[in-house]
Amino acid sequence: MASIRDIKRRRDSISSTEQITKAMKLISTVKLQKSRAKAEESKPYYTMMYETIGSMLSKSDGIDHKYLRSGTSGRKAVIVITSNRGLAGGYNNNIARLVCADERLALEVTDVYAIGRKGKDALARKGYHIAADYSEVINEPLYRDASDITMELLDAFGREQISEIYLAYTSFKNTVTHVPTLKKLLPVEIEGGERKADQALMNYEPDEDRVLDSIIPKYMSSLIYGALLEAVASENGARMTAMDSATNNAEEMIEELGLAYNRARQGAITQELTEIISGANAIS
Fold first, then answer.
1. Cβ-proximal residues to 78 (8 Å cutoff; 6+ apart), any chain
2. DSSP the chain
3. pLDDT digit string (tens) for 196-246?
4. Which domains does the chain show, CATH number per domain?
């Protein structure tokens, strides 16, 4: 059995850890409230942008645009959004597993554009090529950051260095539900199948090439920015949940150590009394 001193030292150590996890939970809760508000305010915009582009293309016929067809290089680019810090449960690992499990993103043909050091390090260990690192972006996401990343990727797509672009992030549903999500950004795919026979055709003015050249970058920037906001909210939610669980575990361990401390103390007192009585009997 551990000595009284060892039990007390262990209990004090866990008590200090509990104070840290409580503080981290409080900080994450405050950050979650702010990041959740931003994500919910922006979601209608980028959701509408996504639906609008799909609706436009579903009402178009015979468009042969560079953003609607795959290139010839065969390489895939995936924007991986994770965090720069750990202690968030399975938040970062879930995204890394999502990318590794997708058959379209084979190790040999995939370039990773990392937003967040945890995802970058995890995929680098798996052998993925890290084409770019934008880890500082996740600290305070701005639309300008999403726009800059979009232009860099579109430039690579236009020069046929990459043929397809994907986005991996964590979708925020609520405080405890965060869903790892993988979306294909380019070539833009039409959801809902072919255009219906009785559906009116979309008119482009001045022409379809100039319209798509203008709107597709905004479409991509909106989705990336929305993913950044949802990822930040999900990270804070995951960290809050993880710290709450850690605090509860620490409280249970402190309680168990308290019982062990009392048993050890009672055993020591009993032993001392026994020795005193034995000594007294021996003298008498």
1. 99, 105, 110, 111, 112, 113, 165, 166, 167, 168, 182
2. ---HHHHHHHHHHHHHHHHHHHHHHHHHHHHHHHHHHHHHHHHHHHHHHHHHHHHHHHT--S---GGGS--SS--EEEEEE--S---STTHHHHHHHHHHH-TTS-GGGEEEEEESHHHHHHHHHHT-EEEEE-GGGGGS--HHHHHHHHHHHHHHHHTTS-SEEEEEEEEE-SSS-EEEEEEEEESPPPTTSSPPTTSPPPP-SS-HHHHHHHHHHHHHHHHHHHHHHHHHHHHHHHHHHHHHHHHHHHHHHHHHHHHHHHHHHHHHHHHHHHHHHHHHHHH-
3. 555 667 778 888 888 888 999 999 999 999 999 999 999 999 999 999 999
4. 4-21+242-283 (1.10.287), 35-241 (3.40.1380.10)
Question: CA triplet 228, 234, 236: central angle to 5 degrees?
Answer: 105
pLDDT tens, 82-130?
999 998 989 999 999 999 999 999 999 999 999 999 999 999 999 999 9
Contact 171, 179 (CB under 8 A): yes
Global pTM value: 0.86
